[in-house]
Every structure is written in structure tokens, then in C-alpha cells.
Amino acid sequence: MKGSPQTDKIKFQFTDCPGYLKYFRNLIRGIQGAHVAVFVLDVYGACLEECRDQVLDQLYACFSGGIQNLVMCLNRMDHREIQWDRVFYDQVAIGFKQIAFKVGYNDDNIKAIIPISGWEGDNLTKMSDRMIWYEGPTLLQALESIVVNFPKELNDKPFMMAIKECHKIGGVDTVVCGVVLQGTVRPEMEVQVEASGKKSIVRSIEAHLEPIQEATVGMSIGIALKRLSTREIFVGDVLMQSTDSGTTLAQKRALSITATIEIVRKPFMQGIKKGIALIADMHTNHYGVNLLQLLEKINKDTGELLQANPESVDAMFLSARLLCQKHIKFAEQLYYGQGTSIAWKIFIKRRYPNYWVGSHQ
């Protein structure tokens, strides 16, 4: 589910990413190009304890996807057994911070932890007079206060966008949606699909349901393409500025990659061994991969090399070589979050409940 509300100060682009395990793929797509993650937890009962693993997975995904700003909302403060009591707020807030710090976030990344009532509207757009002990911002104030600065050099690079959605609309040809990762796109510009080299012309561009004449880094847009069918461009593809120089990003595709992987939870009693089949999420697409070789076992906290060419690895960082079942399509450099350029972020999972997060080297 998506929404595009706006205030007098700013326009927002929201994507709803359910926390359930089976919707993890939606989360991967949702964080593509996102700048802020808003977590909503029930303050009543043992909600955080019951879904601790899910929150941990989501925070790992956000951290690896480059999201540098977190806002936490503790809902149902109006519950008859809570009655706006600060004690319950403090318990969940401390627990959430502990999980976030474990992932790698710090106090500067957590912009606000807000007690709210979705039913009554407390602390959403106006300060609540029933929680006078809370002196922080409302949800709206917290979102409006976050400033996202993009490196200026990204505007000078060729246009590039990872496709999040692809639609066939009668009379408008093919429409693709995504976030501009670098460069600028304009109507009548020639573009091409990185994987196949198929070329097209930009018919029109829309942002927040309004036609625009130019889109730059960080903007969430939809592009109508001429003479390109939905069978020639897919979710996960990279749309880029057309080039005839022969140095397209298609040359960056690979079947074998080396990645540093962090094991979030112990996946098997015997640990991870070479030869296992995995699923990697990169950009907004899925890839089947096989673990060819374990290169190094590394201490999570210190980065110290513990063992070279281990037979198996438990809950550690490891450097490994992966064989993909088809060519991975990745951009040379993708920009995520605030002030950070991150190349080739990969989410790796075993079906189903165990997740690992890795980055291509």
C-alpha cells in the first residue's frame, strides 16, 4: 500500500511494509531509495518480545539498505490497561533501542520514539494533553524535521533507476516506477534496460500524481516508456541513460561474486557449509545462489580474522564466494540513505526462517 500525502513544508512518499515473514520481499522493495523507516509497535502486552526476531530482521534490512533515520511509534497508549502510563512506554522504548544498537544504529539515527494513539490521534499531528510527561515531537514534526542531503556529484552522473513496479496502461504504453538513484531524467530522453540493452524513449514523467519535466536524485517517480512492452522490462531491472560507448552496465553482471555475510541467527545445528542453496535479494529482485566456498571466518565485533577456509561457519561474519543461477543485474554504484554510497547490498535468506545480510565486495 502506498500514499503520497503532503504538508505546507514537504511532500511524503509512504510505502507500507508489513512485518510478517512472508512479506519480507515487500520490505526489500519498500526500502529501495527510502530515507526514513517508521516502526509501529503495540505498547500493550508482550508485542516486542513476541516479534523481536521480526523487528531484528527489519532493522538489519533497513541498516543494510542504507536507511539512516528511524522513527518509532508506540501505539495503543489509550488502552484501558495502559491509560497513557509512561512506565509501559519506557519498557518498550528501551527494548527497541537495544535491538537497534545491536544492528548498528545509534542515538543520532533514532530521531524520535513517540507514544501515540492511532484511534484517538494523540501525538500524530498534534501534541497530546494526556501524556504531558512526553516532551518530544509529534510524528508529523519528527518527519518534517528530517533533512536528506544527497552528494552533489550524483546529479552529474548518468541517469539510473532500479525498477520497483512495472505496469501496462492502455494508451500510455509501459509505466515503470522507482526512485532515481543518480543523474537526471527528462521527457524524450533515450533510456535502456541494463540487462537486455533494450532501448526506449521517455514519453512522460509523473511524481505525486502530477506530470513533471525533470526528475533528479531521490525522487520517487513513474516513467511512461515508448515502444517497450512489459515483457522486455521487469521489477529488479535497472533503467539507465542510453549509451553507445560500449561501456554499459551490462558488463557489470556476474555469475560469481564474493560477499561478506553476517549470520543473524544460527541457521543449522552444524553451521553453514559450502554447497547450500540460498536466495539473494538485490535491488528489488530475487536471485538463486549457491555457496561455493567459505573464504574466511571473521569476528563480528572486532573484524579479526579467526580462520581461513573454514569447513563451516556459525554465528559470525564470513567472506564467501557465491555462484548465481543466473546473471545478477547490479548497478555500478547505488545510493541509499543520507550521505552514504553503498555498492551492491545483498540480502540472503534460506527458506525460510533464517536470514543473513551480506554486502558484495
From TrEMBL:
Domain Translation elongation factor EFTu-like: 174-239
Record keywords, A-Z: GTP-binding, Nucleotide-binding
One Pfam assignment: GTP_EFTU_D2
Source superkingdom: Eukaryota
DNA-binding as UniProt keyword: no
Occurrences of domain Tr-type G (ranges): 6-132
Gene3D superfamilies the UniProt entry points to: P-loop containing nucleotide triphosphate hydrolases, Translation factors
Gene Ontology terms for molecular function: GTP binding; GTPase activity
Official protein name in the record: Uncharacterized protein
